[in-house]
Amino acid sequence: MNCQKWSFRMALLLFSVAISLGLSRLVASESLEFPSNYEQDFVHYASVTCPNSRIVRQMYANPIAMNAARENNPLPNGSVIVMETHSAVADANGRLTPSHLNNVFIREKQSGFGQEHSENLRNGNWKYAWFSPTGNLVSNRESSCLSCHTRVSDRDYVFTLPDLVTAAQTNQLQSRPTKFGLSVCN
Question: Per CATH, is 31-185 categorized as 3.40.50.150?
Fold first, then answer.
């Protein structure tokens, strides 16, 4: 009888562990939601121009990320960053002006995000997704985002973290050309 109780408890424990692992992988593999009101609810903190590819990237952060950046704290779980990529035209002085919204990329930080990736590719607890300008999911394949953002692991995998901190502390939009060459602007 004790052996039956032990076997039942062990089977129940193993079943619970299997369910927990399955749910965590299911959550990790789901795509992010498109934040439909990000232009109103988030802060437009940076405009990054990519002269060689004639792209302008408009960066937005949710209040959770902005509040942490204002205090110069690490970005906590719940942080969301939106990156719009625009085709751009150059004026007579070579300054780029956005002309057409092409893509919207979302990244979110949550506990457990990224666990499905190998350690050398993982970007902390960040997860990425690519959307059309209308909010339709284009892709939740993260490999190109992950491999590129590993270059700035010292910035919590956020290329524009210095801009985010400065914008949060000064309440001023940060505008600059990219500092990372062509690859970040493709």
Answer: no
Which among 112, 105, 125 is positioned nearest to 34, based on CA atoms?
105
Amino acid identity of 9? Answer: R
Query: How deeply is 123 buried, as exposed, middle or buried, from its count of CB atoms within 10 A (0-12, 13-18, 19+)?
Result: buried
The contacts of residue 21 (CB under 8 Å, 6+ apart) are none
**Distance from C-alpha of 158 to C-alpha of 134, rounded to nearest angstrom:** 24
Secondary structure class of 16 (helix, strand, coil): helix
pTM summary value: 0.78
* Alpha-carbon separation of residue 147 from 8, 66, 100, 138, 161 (angstroms): 45, 25, 27, 19, 18
> 111-164 pLDDT, tens per residue?
888 778 777 666 788 888 999 999 999 988 777 776 677 788 889 879 899 999
